[in-house]
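Q: What structure does this chain adopt?
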Amino acid sequence: MRLAAAACHAVVCMAGCSEDGVRDASIGGDAGADAGADTGAPSDTSVADAAAPLPTCAVLSAVEGLTGPGRDSGEHVVPAPSTLDAFEQMTRAAAQARYRDAAALADAVGYAVCRGEGAEADLVYLHPLDSSTGAAHVVVREGTAPGVIFEAPHPFYDTGTISQSVALFRDLPGRALIASATHRCANSAASGCDGTTGACGTTGPYRESDVAHATDSVFHRAHVALSEAYPGDLAISVHGMGGDGASLSNGTTDAVAPDTPLARIAAAFLSAGITGVTSCSSGTGAPTEARLCGTTNVQGRHLNGTADACTTSAPSATERFVHIEQSRAVRDDVPRVVSALRVALGF
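A:
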């Protein structure tokens, strides 16, 4: 398997990286919704080694320029279960500032771990050594950061969402960023998860390369690792749509209270002058319309407490997930969306 067989050491970064010492830092945390108060210290019993030296590298420009398998290429690699397990452990270790552990695990899955340069020195970047596999890119911000994880599952299909996600993570700023590096229609095989789509031509099952609808992916495992490492954080899934305005959802169509993240984001979008805002749930103040509600999104199902995110609908909303579908005009108006989310989330 290409992902697991990369013949490079995990701490070898991209071209232009250099060995450098790093400052002490630790991962901050918010109050955990399911695990009690988070003190900001790593939750693993291992000792954090935030001062462990890592190679330095450019981070956000690399994520914004990511490449990977294209439409109908058949090149997206579905990792073996053991590789997925090791990847999840690596991501969790990085989130807990256990960088020696993360680097050792990265070596087994064909990843590199590096630290941002200059203004990006608080960013730790996990990226595949072989860009042809379609494996996801992950960025974690050190220190106390606002509790939001940005997720970009369709960068090559939903035009502009990778640039927008990078800008949201940078400018708000966010806790973490997960970016897929494969076209959702790269492979023809079905993911085995619920639902159908016409995104790849004729209507059919979601494909195994569609990481918003496949649990056997490093993208989904990164989501699991980060959302469990930061149990009070909100995950925002960034999408594009052909319709006007924006469709907002918490992964269900249940009614919500006015103080929920979904309702606050809807109100902020409306106040920011974004036209055509609708909500899949009543109670937000926006018109209720069930369009592209993300109810089969496996990251949303995971956060909404389903036992099997692939095949089982969420029992209810935990208000830890927001699915944002946007027209091209909204995606391109990044400052307006940044401003609206800053108001909604209290950053």
